[in-house]
Structure formats: C-alpha cells, structure tokens
Specification:
The complex is a heterodimer of chains A (about 270) and B (about 425). Chain A is mostly helical and about 270 residues long. Chain A contains 13 helices and no strands. Chain B has about 425 residues and is an alpha/beta fold. Chain B has helices spanning about 1-20, 20-30, 50-65, 80-90, 105-110, 130-135, 160-165, 175-185, 205-215, 215-225, 235-245, 260-265, 325-335, 335-345, 365-375, 380-385, 390-405, 410-425; strands spanning about 40-45, 70-75, 100, 145-150, 155-160, 190-195, 270-275, 290-295, 305-310, 310-315, 350, 375-380. Chain B has a six-stranded mixed beta sheet. In chain B, helix 3 (about 50-65) runs antiparallel to helix 14, helix 9 crosses helix 10 (about 215-225) and helix 9 crosses helix 11. Mean pLDDT of chain B is about 85; it is low at about 1-40. Classes of the chains: A mainly alpha (about 270), B alpha/beta (about 425).
Chain lengths: ~270, ~425
C-alpha cells in the first residue's frame, strides 16, 4: 500500500516537473495559433481568444523559411559530417597510437573550447573576409567544424581509448594497416558515440545564431535562426508569427533527436567511466 | 597566445572545408560580396525587417529599378542583427553600398571615422528640405553625409473614448497635466502608462521631453554630446519635476515591455502613454480610430518649444564601388514620389521628410505633422542625439530613479561617471 503511494507520489511529482519543462514549449505552440489582434489586445500571457493557422503561412512566406531551412541544412549536414570525420581520425591517432605529446595536443584542443567564442567574433569575421569567403556558407561550415573539432575529438578519444587492445592486435596480425584498422574495426565500434555526438552537434550547429550573423551578410543566405530574428520588427514584433516560425524551425532538430534518441541517451555516459 | 591558435585552427578549418566541400560552393558563389562589382548594381542593406516595412522597401526598390537609372539589390537583415553588425559592414573590405540608418550624431560618428560617402551633391536637388534636416544630415566636418527620407513623432497617446468616459480633456500645460492625472487616478486607474521591462529606453523619452521643456533643446543636445554635466542643477530640476508626477505612473510598467504597455493603454488599464508613433503597429486595427495624442505639456512658456522627431534615412559607404550610381539612387530616395511610395506601403505613421511629400491621410498623422512643423527646435531621441553607447547609462540611471527617486543626487553622480567613461572612450 505504502509502496503504491510512493509510486503514485513519484509519478505525480515527476509529472509536475516535466510539465514545468514542457510548459514554455506548450506556451509557444499556443501563441503560434493566436491571431495578432488577439495577442495585441489581450497580451501574450492571456488565454487564447482566437485560433488561426495563418501564422504558419505567414512565417513560411515572410521569413522565407523554406530557403532558410535549406541554408541551415546545407550548413549543418556537411559541418556535422566533416567535423565528426576529422575528429574521429584525430581521436583514433591520439587514442590508439603512442604519438609524442599526444596529451598536450588533446589538452590544447580542449583549451580552445574553454575560450568564450564572443572574443573571437571580430578576428573570425576579419579572417574570413581576408581569405575571401565572407558571406558564404562555406565560411560558416568552416567555423563550425573548427569550433566543434576540439570537443568531439576529446569525447571520441575517451571512447576509443577504452576499446580492447586485443581487437587491434588481432587485426594487425591479420595484416591490416592503420587505415584499414580505423575504417573496418575502430570506426564501426565507435558508432554509438558518433551517433550521440552527431545528434548533439546537429542541434548545436542548426540552432547557432552567433556565427551565422558574424560571417553572413546577405538575407538570402541566412540560416533559419537569423531568419526568425528577421521576423522581429524594429519596434514591434508579431510574436504569434515568430512562435509559428519557431515551431517550424524546431522540426528538423526534433526529427534528428527522435531518430537518434536511443544512441543519444546511451551516449551521454560516454567517457564518464574510465 | 590562445586566440592565435584558434585563429590558426580556424584558418585550417576554412581551407580544409573549402577544399573538401566544393559541392556546397555552387549554392553560394553567386554575388559573393554583397555588391556587384562593375555591373553598376548597388547593394542596399536594410534593417527594415518588419513585414510591412520590408514589403514597402521591396516596392520602392522595384520602382527605382524600373526607372532605368540603375539596379539596386535589396538585402534585408533583421534589425537586431543590423544594429550590431553595422560597424562590421562599414569597415569590411567590400561593404554594401547604401544603408538604412538614422540622422544626427549616430551618422556623424561614422563620418568621423571617415566611413561615409560625401553626398553633398545629392543635396543640390533637396533645396526644399527644412534647415533642421540639413543640420541633422551634416557631419561635424561640414559635409552632407545623410539623406533623410522620413520621420515620426512622439506624443502623449490616449483613447478618446476613455478620456470622454473619465471626463478629462487633453491638457496643454504642466499644471493641467497634473490635474488630469489626479482625475484619472481618482477613478482607480493608473494615469501614466509605461513599459520598461526589456525596453528600458522608453523612459528616456520622459527625460528628453522634460529636459527640452525645462532647459531647452540646445542645453539638451550639449548635455548629450558630452558638453554638459549630469550633476548640473539644471539636470536635477528635470528630475524634481518628474517626481511631481511619479505617483501617477503605472506600477506594473516596470515589468513589461512597451508593447504590453500599449495593450494596457488600449484596454483602458492606463490613462495615457508617452510613446512614438511606432506603437500603433502593435495595436489591433479596430482600436486605432479611437487613438489620439496631445503634445507633451508646456512647462516653461519662455523656452522655445521643441519636439522629438526621430529622422530615418540613408547613408552610403565611402568605399561604394560606383559613387555616382549611389548618389543617383539617393537622389531618387529624396524625391516626394519615392517617399510617398514608401510611406503608403509601410505602416503609415511615418511622415515623408520631403516637405512636398504627402503623409498618410489620417487626422492623427496630420496632427502629428502639424505639431512637428510648428516646433521651433527638433530633437531626435536620446540614443540618436548621443550614441548607442550612452543609452545604457541613461537606462540604468532612469530605472533607478523610478525605483528610488529620493536618491537622485547619487544617481546623477553615477550617471555622470558612467557617461564620462563613454565620452572618453
């Protein structure tokens, strides 16, 4: 009996906590279905007095959200693939071979991640301009790859280091070189970590705003986050349309998360146990 | 040392990505720099990202391109991004040619860094513009650097039906204003609405208006340009006057932004609201007919009447690829036709800067235009008359004053200290 009470209490408490987490999202969804006059007359916090789908149409057209989403994916997918590819190569070398100063190299890569990105805004914008890639999606991909590399290498290094030595030795005896071992043995074994990191980096890069506005100037090349910002007026913003745009923009990341959910939860523990 | 490594890494990343993903290049190589080089195409960088304003800009550019005078490519970015990135745009090696921005000291600060194109020749066709606009568009060095195209006004807005219900009439003098406040207060409604959460700069309107009513526009401008002192007794007089009406401010106003304060005004939860005409964009359309405004009350009749009329327009980069084409475009923007086209298609409360341009045909706009035209002096707004760097010092001081009006001496000292840091920077 008391056990049942305990379980019931637990579920009630956890239900309340999860409601607290979900409430802001629900609020955004509710606002996205309200009309502008309703929001203006009753305020954002009031209960809805109207129901409309036109906000979604408006967001899709005014923010040019289709193009913005295409831009976002054009940046996110290559950046994720490239940074994870490079990071896994680096991690393989650092974790499986006795490279001199490998600890220093790893620490250096991590150190970069401790710097606040804000202080690098101007150097990066100037540098990208200098090499002639300002206002291109390539520049944005490069920035994301550069920034992700340190952290991804660190995580993958931790994971690869824990793979049993015997597997690699067996492969060596069978005549496989370092490249072959990496591609056929280590990489397949690292898949859970890669999937988790992939889901994580996808959201990070997809949701980035700072770097896109630093290296991109043309409205038609902006990814989806600055495009949403563009829905805000100088003084007055149609929050219902912005909410609708946000809901649309959340779809790809949610989809990726659902797809990789299992790996993601499993991957959270990566590198936690030595 | 560390940033160097990062930059280096970034360089490697950039080169690596450039080499590894040529597939993406195809989608991004078109007009890479933001401006056509020798094609005569002008890149116009616009911060007018609100739905209507953006559509109006598109129509305007389309109309110009049809005249055959040149080709303009409009690039609209979110106003918030534009504001933070404008210095980067202007100092980049291949900047956009023309920008939407504000007249006055903000434009002048870029001119002082030698970033703006001298557009004196454009002004040859703008002889009918009032003197005040000329002054606003001239840099400290004496060159014309700005082309004003529209302005709006600030006033004490209220709902006609509510004023009728409460039995009050729009006041003209400070004493009458205080009476109106008392009457509305007696009905259990906070007389003066304000919205300072997220938009603390709205309080600067009170400071601006009290200062230009008590001390006059020249003193106000000097103070904001760093030629005065916030601990001056004349500045303290502003706050002494402000304290007289402080009990009538909506106590909830500190917690929500001015958009919500607009809702409060329209919902009859506050009596009146000192705000710029842009607030009308956040009002439901059916409430707009019931809205009227009165001029900020006269405090000292001896002080020449000044009004806040923030002026918007365009300036061009000094590095514009084809300065003649840019000037031609700016000349077009200065015409009444171009300004009417914009005003008609945008939200409608802006007034064309060209005196021959017709504003929207509503009683409200006519009244606003008449008020601005009859003013002896024009000011812009706190940040436009000073700088975006000085605005936060005002926000801090004014918010604190609204909370703790009895600490005014300390607040003014702090404000002066913060402001002098800004001016020395």
């Amino acid at each position: 009996m008391s056990n049942r009470l305990k379980t019931g209490g637990y579920h009630l408490a956890m239900g309340l906590v999860s409601f607290l987490w979900v409430a802001p999202i629900l609020w955004v969804v509710v606002i996205s279905f309200r009309s502008f006059d309703d929001v203006a007359a009753n305020g954002l916090g009031s209960l809805p007095h109207s129901f409309t789908f036109s906000t979604y149409v408006q967001a899709w057209q005014d923010a040019d959200e289709f193009r913005a989403l295409v831009n976002s994916l054009l940046v996110t997918i290559p950046a994720v693939l490239l940074s994870l590819g490079l990071a896994s190569i680096a991690a393989y070398g650092l974790a499986r071979y006795n490279i001199p100063f490998r600890r220093t190299v790893l620490l250096l890569m991590l150190m970069g991640n401790l710097l606040p990105p804000q202080i690098l805004l101007i150097p990066i914008s100037r540098f990208v301009e200098l090499i002639g890639y300002y206002d291109t999606l390539i520049a944005l991909i490069a920035v994301h790859v550069g920034f992700g590399l340190g952290f991804y290498t660190f995580v993958l290094h931790g994971f690869m280091r824990d793979l049993p030595k015997e597997i690699q030795e067996a492969a060596t005896i069978d005549g496989a070189g370092p490249g072959k071992i990496f591609a056929s043995v280590i990489l397949p074994l690292t898949r859970p970590a890669l999937a988790a990191l992939g889901a994580l980096s996808f959201t990070w890069i997809f949701n980035d705003l700072l770097w896109s506005i630093t290296v991109i100037r043309s409205g038609d090349k902006m990814p989806v986050t600055p495009a949403l910002l563009g829905l805000q007026g100088l003084f007055v913003s149609s929050w219902n349309v912005i909410a609708a745009g946000t809901v649309i923009a959340a779809v790809p990341t949610v989809a990726v998360f659902l797809k990789f959910q299992k790996h993601f939860v499993g991957g959270l523990a990566i590198g936690a146990v030595k | 040392m560390a940033p160097d490594r990062r930059t280096f890494l970034k360089g490697l990343g950039a080169l690596g990505a450039a080499a590894l993903v040529p597939g993406c290049a195809t989608s991004t190589t078109s007009s890479g720099g933001g401006g056509g080089s020798a094609t005569g195409e002008i890149a116009l960088q616009s911060n007018l990202s609100a739905e209507q304003a953006k559509a109006a800009m598109e129509k305007l550019v389309e109309a110009y391109n049809k005249t055959g005078g040149g080709t303009v490519k409009l690039n609209t970015v979110a106003s918030e991004i534009f504001r933070t990135q404008l210095p980067t745009y202007l100092t980049s090696a291949n900047p956009p040619d023309v920008y939407t921005w504000y007249a006055g000291s903000v434009a002048n600060s870029y001119a002082e860094k030698d970033l703006l194109l001298d557009v004196t020749s454009v002004w040859d066709s703008m002889g009918n513009y009032p003197k005040s606009m000329q002054t606003l568009s001239t840099s400290a060095a004496g060159a014309k650097i700005f082309v004003p195209t529209s302005y709006y006004w600030w006033g004490m807005f209220y709902r006609k039906s509510n004023f009728a219900k409460w039995g009050v009439t729009p006041p003209k003098t400070w004493a009458e204003f205080v009476q109106v406040c008392e009457k509305i207060q007696a009905q259990g409604i906070p007389p003066i609405g304000i919205g300072l959460g997220d938009t603390p700069w709205v309080a600067s309107a009170w400071f601006d208006y009290l200062n230009i009513r008590i001390n006059g526009a020249p003193f106000h401008r000097d103070l904001l340009a760093g030629k005065g002192d916030f601990t001056d007794p004349k500045v303290k007089a502003v706050f002494t006057k402000w304290r007289e009406v402080l009990p009538y401010f909506d106590p909830k106003g500190k917690s929500f932004p001015f958009q919500e304060a607009t809702s409060a005004l329209l919902g009859g939860k506050t009596g009146m609201f000192l705000i710029g005409t842009f607030f009308a964009d956040s009002a439901p359309k059916d409430a707009l007919d019931d809205i009227d405004f009165f001029q900020f009350p006269i405090i000292d009749p001896k002080v020449p009447v000044a009004e806040e009329a923030p002026t918007d327009g365009y300036f061009a980069s000094k590095k514009a690829k084809d300065p003649e084409a840019v000037k031609k475009f700016l000349t077009y923007l200065a015409t009444p036709e171009a300004q009417e086209l914009y005003v008609q298609n945008s939200s409608g409360t802006a007034i064309p800067a060209n005196p021959d341009g017709k504003a929207a045909d509503t009683p409200l706009v006519a009244k606003g235009k008449a008020m601005v035209n009859s003013a002896a002096e024009l000011t812009q707004f706190f940040n436009r008359d000073s700088s975006d760097a000085l605005q936060p010092t005002a926000d801090a001081a004014l918010t604190k004053f609204l909370d703790k009006p009895d600490q005014i001496d300390q607040i003014l000292e702090d404000w002066q200290a913060a402001a002098s840091k800004v001016f020395q920077a």
